[in-house]
Design a protein that fits this description.
alpha/beta; DNA polymerase, domain 1; Beta Polymerase, domain 3; five-stranded mixed β-sheet; binds 2'-deoxyguanosine-5'-triphosphate; binds calcium ion; binds zinc ion
Length: about 575
């Protein structure tokens, strides 16, 4: 996995150049290349070298730097810049409320070089006195430091899942590995994980461990034992591997998948039946009665198989015992996507390209670019929107086998009205309405802001309903109970935004929605074609929320889906 590393170096170079007040064009070219590499669907080293400069944003100069990195593992330009600025400034840029310019200002004027110094200056209220900063920003920075601290030890699915699959792939190739799986919170698809837990079966654990600690990803070996080893990967994520015998594999997989709370309940059930459960199997006295497969463990305590996403002791044991486990939604149930951006706003690829990619995965899709309030994203006014509609309708004719729809992601203004007149919205098939600005409202104000938007007959879906960015921004204050009741009353769908750092609605909210009979729309919020991959995180989060296919609008067949999205308009128009 070289692309993410090169991308990170380019974006750090851009940050450093910005701190050093260098040429804005150079800065922009590094940023652009970083973004392209981050989302490139193939490893750059697998591409023919003569094709590299065909990649948007990669010119001769950056091509040379990529070559340098791939052959030496280093980038001189990056190292030279690192000599010129305090190294912690690069971390500080990631703190909400800060960017390269502010970091430079703080360094120049207050001599701040570390997060600790920054926090101290904030608490002494020195930051608010700087020109252009003020009290609000000072508060935001302090909150940001706190939030980053809280999440520092936990990693989002977008980072852990690709890495875990890569590690599994490498280990699977080793002849001594009979079985291998991801366990722990990652297998349960929790939105963040402290580490990656892997479990393998082998007759030769010593050899497997030897190979594990020698993988190319290893930054540091934290522990190297016969049955358990831990490494710190170059990505800064810890990965633990346990190796067991094949006949204990199911028991170990169950045990190390957790959660701890779920495991405790299973052990109690076993005790009630005079049995003992541990990571080696289920025992009746000295005799092992189960252990090879997870199903056996559940069966031994009188349960059907419980999917990992449900194993949180949130009622899954009771539901299992009474035969009421949900039939969870699956990836293949999703037939469409209604949150897709293109070059018409802040997407990075043309309409046609996004539609081509959507067509490969779905039976229908709606393009939903931003409205103009999102100025920085190049949002659309009514006139532009209508031009886009024309273009989409034209394009749709090309694809008789695919239902291409017109949508928008329209901003919900502070008073709950929309950033687009109804008479333009009327021309669309659907609208996603979202809050992007003015987050600082009381719970009451924010709740009524969003409910006002729901009252509009043209608002089909509320986009990323709590506005959180995992590890970066807390959700705005909003009363979810009231939002969901209003969604039910008005026939508005609630989005589950699948982007790994949003996952909004979250698992708890999803379950509430289901219980209230509110329908969910699982979208990707794609800004380029590689983002369609995000869907898997949305689906696994839905599963954590006990969601079934019938709870989700975009599992419907095209004709029925069309009916469903028109229903609210029909009902509330008169
Ligand atoms: P994390 O790492 O904080 O994201 O969450 P987990 O659930 O992956 O926790 P971790 O890595 O500490 O342990 C992996 C699994 O091993 C955990 O889900 C359940 C099991 N486990 C670990 N320690 C205990 C324990 O003391 N008691 C029980 N019953 N299970 C445990
Ligand atoms: Ca774990
Ligand atoms: Zn949005």
């Amino acid at each position: 996995m070289n692309n993410p590393q090169i991308s990170k170096m380019f974006s750090e170079i851009a940050d450093m150049l910005e701190i050093l007040n260098e040429n804005p064009f150079r800065i922009r070219s590094y940023r652009k290349a970083a973004m392209t590499l981050e989302t490139l669907p193939h490893e750059i080293r697998d591409l023919d070298e003569s094709k590299w400069t065909d990649i948007p944003g990669i010119g001769k100069d950056l091509e040379a730097k990529i070559k340098e990195y791939l052959s030496t593992g280093r980038m001189k330009a990056h190292e030279e810049l690192m000599q010129k600025i305090p190294p912690e400034l690069l971390d500080m840029i990631q703190i909400p409320g800060l960017g390269p310019k502010t970091v430079k200002k703080l360094w120049d004027e207050l001599g701040i070089k570390t997060t600790a110094e920054l926090e101290k200056a904030g608490k002494e209220h020195l930051i608010q006195n700087l020109k252009g900063l003020g009290q609000k920003i000072e508060e935001k920075i302090l909150k940001g430091i706190e939030l980053r601290r809280k999440y520092k030890e936990r990693h989002g699915l977008g980072k852990t899942v690709p890495l875990a699959h890569e590690l599994v792939g490498l280990l699977q190739k080793k002849t001594d590995v009979l079985k291998i799986d991801i366990a722990g919170s990652l297998r349960r698809s929790r939105e963040t994980s402290a580490d990656i837990d892997l479990l393998a079966a082998s007759k030769n654990p010593g050899k497997v461990m030897e190979e594990f600690v020698n993988l190319p990803f290893v930054q540091e070996i934290l522990a190297h034992g016969e049955t358990k080893s831990s490494i710190l990967t170059k990505q800064g994520i810890q990965c633990d591997l346990r190796v067991v015998e094949e006949e204990s594999y199911g028991a170990a997989l169950h045990y190390f998948t957790g959660s701890k709370e779920h495991n405790i309940r299973i052990r109690q059930l076993a005790q009630d039946r005079g049995l003992k459960v541990n990571e080696y199997g289920v025992f009746k006295g000295e005799k092992k009665i189960a252990g090879g497969a997870e199903e056996e463990i559940f069966a031994a305590v009188g349960l059907p198989y419980i999917p990992p996403e449900l194993r949180e002791d949130r009622g899954e044991i009771e539901a299992g015992l009474s035969g009421n486990l949900p039939h969870l939604i699956e990836h293949s149930d999703i037939r469409g996507d209604c949150h897709i951006h293109t070059l018409w706003s802040d997407g990075s690829q043309p309409l046609e390209v996004m539609v081509e990619a959507a067509r490969k995965r779905y039976q229908y899709a709606a393009i939903s670019d931003h409205s103009k309030m999102m100025g920085i994203t190049g949002g659309m006014d009514a006139e532009t929107l209508l031009r886009q509609v024309k273009e989409i309708r034209n394009l749709a004719k090309k694809y008789p086998d695919f239902m291409l729809l017109c949508g928008i992601e329209v901003d919900i203004k502070a008073d709950g009205t929309l950033d687009m007149p109804d008479k333009a919205l009327k021309e669309l098939d659907l609208a996603v309405a979202s809050v992007h600005l003015k987050f600082n409202m009381s719970e009451e104000e924010m709740t009524s802001r969003i409910i006002t938007a729901m009252e509009n007959p043209y608002v089909t879906i509320i986009g990323h309903p709590t506005g959180r960015l995992i590890g970066y921004r807390e959700p705005y204050q909003v009363n979810m109970e009231k939002l969901l009741d209003a969604a039910k009353r008005t026939g508005t769908f609630m989005e589950l935004n699948s982007f790994w750092d949003r996952l909004d609605l979250n698992d708890v909210h999803l379950r509430m929605a289901k219980e209230k009979g509110v329908k969910i729309m699982i979208d990707t919020d794609s800004h380029n074609t590689s983002h369609f991959e995000m869907l898997k995180y949305g689906v696994s989060t839905a599963r954590r929320g006990w969601i079934e296919a019938r709870d989700v609008v975009n599992t419907l067949l095209p004709e029925k889906f069309l009916k469903a999205i028109k229903a609210k308009r029909e009902l509330r128009k008169a």
